[in-house]
Design goal:
Structural class: mainly alpha
Number of strands: 0
Shape: extended
Largest sheet: none
Distance between the termini: 36 Å
Number of helices: 4
Length: 116
């Protein structure tokens, strides 16, 4: 679940040039929660796996893991996760569209005739 509190900071001087952080801060927590909840479980799992791969996966029950990152690196990670989410959602919508088109007998298209 998205935690909007992570966007708050005591020092806003570093964020003046970061349009993405400013945009996210201008959104209400309800909007951010709705966007986060709109992603399917499959998309959330892929993004979680991607972020864990970038940060390094360590079993929490065996290690006390602490990750430190600069503000710029964290912003890059956030941007990467957002772009991955948008891309995955587009691919999910395309898959759903293809499944609905190919499942309808009247709309069925021979896949050999497609040039994808």
């Amino acid at each position: 679940m998205f935690n909007p509190e992570f966007l708050t900071t005591d020092n806003n001087d570093c964020q003046d040039g970061n349009g993405l952080i400013q945009y996210l801060q201008d959104q209400s927590p309800d909007v951010l929660q709705r966007v986060a909840k709109s992603a399917s479980n499959d998309i959330q799992d892929i993004i979680r796996h991607n972020v864990q791969g970038l940060l390094g996966m360590h079993p929490g029950e065996q290690f006390e893991v602490k990750v430190t990152a600069s503000r710029d690196n964290l912003a890059s990670l956030l941007a990467s996760a957002m772009m991955t989410g948008y891309f995955l959602r587009q691919m999910e919508q395309r898959k759903e569209l293809e499944e609905s088109l190919f499942s309808d007998e009247a709309m069925a298209v021979d896949t050999d005739d497609l040039n994808l």
